[in-house]
Amino acid sequence: MDRMIYIAMSGAKQAMEQQASVASNMANVSTPGFRAQLNNFRAVPVVGEEAATRAFVVASTPGADMSTGPLTETGRPMDVAVRGDGWLTVQTADGGEAYTRVGNLQVGADGQLMTMNKLPVIGDAGPMAVPPGAAVMISADGLVSAIGAGDPATNVAQVGRLKLVNPAASDLLRGDDGLFRMRAGAAAPDADPAVTLQTGAVEGSNVNPVSAMVEMIANARSFEMQMKAVKSADENDQRANQLLSMSS
């Protein structure tokens, strides 16, 4: 018996899962530094006494779109955007390293330099801190300097240098928190002096809202098509049962 209904059900299920991924991209169209999740379908041949043309469909997420998002000038001294390829390094809750393109930095109450998501920013010697109330300046090469409140402009103190890295895209994995981490077994990358920053600017999401909307429509139509196939398979089974009942 041809398992048409199961094949159609698998297609509908994968269309729903891919729709969730596209919806996540759409929801983050305004999230600074967001990288769109790529989605693909792949065919898995049915093993068994079925027609050779039968294949299940499986949704796969081969990675993220690493293209650069648009830059927005803010004029804020602590806003930085990575030029071209590269990443800022932050410390995760478990003490490990993760990588982000979100560059709207801030100083915590204890003077710790962190992202807007409260993640400590890592420099050349670990997490960075500046004197509370100090004015912070960040240069294009990631050098962080600070001037204490009321101090003359000549009293600039170098706090450290941001750890800017540029690992191969194939070595990075996106986490559920939106941060990227190295694949299992891959060593943490060293700072790359070729990575530079643009200060007073932030990078936007690289999600194209028009493309994402087209994908959502295509997935919805794919789901409808699979459900029609399920209905057709059910109708075929009912007609076959009627014919068998009449012949008995």
From TrEMBL:
Family annotation (Pfam families): Flg_bb_rod, Flg_bbr_C, LlgE_F_G_D1
Alphabetical UniProt keywords: Bacterial flagellum, Cell projection, Cilium, Flagellum
Compartment annotation: Bacterial flagellum basal body
Domain Flagellar basal-body/hook protein C-terminal residues, every copy: 198-243
A GO biological-process term: bacterial-type flagellum-dependent swarming motility
Residues of the Flagellar hook protein FlgE/F/G-like D1 domain: 81-146
GO cellular component: bacterial-type flagellum basal body, rod
Keyword Oxidoreductase found: no
Residue ranges annotated for the Flagellar basal body rod protein N-terminal domain, each copy included: 5-35
Predominant location category: other
NCBIfam families (UniProt xref): FlgEFG_subfam (TIGR03506), PRK12640.1 (NF009280)
Family classification: Belongs to the flagella basal body rod proteins family.
Record text on subunit structure and interactions: The basal body constitutes a major portion of the flagellar organelle and consists of five rings (E,L,P,S, and M) mounted on a central rod. The rod consists of about 26 subunits of FlgG in the distal portion, and FlgB, FlgC and FlgF are thought to build up the proximal portion of the rod with about 6 subunits each.
Protein name: Flagellar basal-body rod protein FlgF
